[in-house]
Specification:
Blueprint: H1 8-13, H2 17-25, H3 32-43, H4 49-61, E1 63-66, H5 74-85, E2 99-102, H6 107-113, E3 120-124, H7 135-147, E4 152-156, H8 159-163, H9 167-181, E5 185-189, H10 198-210, E6 215-217, H11 229-246, E7 251-253, H12 261-275, E8 287-289, H13 292-305
Parallel strand pairs: 1-2, 1-8, 2-3, 3-4, 4-5, 5-6, 6-7
InterPro entries: Aldolase_TIM, DeoC, DeoC/FbaB/LacD_aldolase
Keywords: Lyase, Schiff base
Catalytic activity: 2-deoxy-D-ribose 5-phosphate = D-glyceraldehyde 3-phosphate + acetaldehyde
């Protein structure tokens, strides 16, 4: 079992399956009451009116504008890329989003629509959302996305293997997908709603980081519960502790169920307080969302105009 370049103690943890198991089960347990209480307390914090516009613009810049439906069309993706480029056509100072996220067969359309911008093209892969397929099929899924121009790949871990304690198999699959990504960044979806415990979320987070994931992501958005603040706290702690141990910055992406500006600001507060201010950038924190952007744009207009504009003033996806 080969490992990425790591400090000796972490490299030793990936030497074989037994070492990996020993390391993951040796991580400190998560205090469920404590993490939930802290998440609740931070969620009640208010921010000054002068900071709210900054928070809204920061959140917009962190959005992975997403469409992952069986009925997706090339026309829908083209419309989504237009919205990504100019989220509010009447307000050209509105930030662009971080990326557009689509299925692999629609990546080329997204690439064409975003030509000339710095907006990323993300693609789900590895038999999304179930992850139930052979390694060969998963790698082919990634190859299709990358060859079509994806700059980011969102993979799903094999939750069945993880829950059975076959950590080595999950580790090796993430490594194989990372290698297949080439220069594309890899986001590793843990599907935390199926991991049952916070301890499992912490173990899965560290497993993904050890295997080379650039981001750890909560959910596919197809399973309930999806992103929650306590789970995101645990994942933020993991990337913070990873940075302390290695000096490497890795990102976090909550996805699913984050629909309002108020929700987004709660997550930004968590990022600042749990991981640190340097994570308040699209390079290290993303929102996987579709409807969130609309509310952010409405609230941005409210901040500028001093009155609520109403949903008719923002294009619906």
């Amino acid at each position: 079992m080969s490992a990425p370049t790591l400090p000796a103690a972490l490299a030793d943890a990936t030497r074989d399956d037994a070492s990996l198991r020993r390391f993951l089960h040796g991580l400190p347990g998560v205090d469920q009451v404590g993490v939930e209480a802290r998440a609740t307390a931070l969620a009640t914090r208010s921010i000054k009116k002068s900071s709210k516009l900054w928070a809204i613009d920061t959140a917009i810049s962190m959005v992975d504008l997403t469409t992952l439906e069986g009925a997706d069309t090339h026309g829908k993706v083209r419309a989504l890329t237009a919205k990504a480029r100019r989220p509010d056509p009447d307000r050209p100072d509105t930030p662009q989003v971080a990326a557009v996220c689509v299925y692999p067969d629609l990546v080329a359309t997204a690439v064409e629509g975003l030509k000339g911008t710095d907006i990323g093209v993300a693609s789900v892969a590895t038999a999304f959302p179930s992850g139930r397929s052979s390694r060969q099929v998963k790698l082919a899924d990634v190859a299709l996305a990358v060859e079509s121009g994806a700059t980011e790949v969102d993979m799903v871990i094999d939750r069945g293997a993880f829950l059975e304690g076959r950590y080595g198999a999950v580790f090796e699959e993430i490594q194989a997908i990372k290698a297949a990504c080439g220069t594309a960044h890899l986001k590793v979806i843990l599907e935390t709603g199926e991991l049952v415990t916070y301890d499992n979320v912490r173990r899965a987070s560290w497993l993904a980081l050890l295997a080379g994931g650039d981001f750890i992501k909560t959910s596919t958005g197809k399973v309930s519960p999806a992103a929650t603040l306590p789970v995101t706290h645990v994942m933020l702690q993991a990337v913070r502790d990873w940075f302390t141990a290695t000096g490497e910055l890795r990102g976090v992406k909550p996805a699913g169920g984050i629909r309002t500006t108020k929700d987004a600001i709660k997550y930004l507060v968590a990022v600042h307080e749990v991981a640190g201010e340097q994570w308040l950038t699209p390079e290290l924190f993303r929102f996987g969302a579709s409807s969130l952007l609309n509310d952010l744009l409405l609230q941005r207009r409210t901040q500028h105009d001093g009155h609520y504009s109403g949903p008719d003033y923002v294009a619906v996806d």
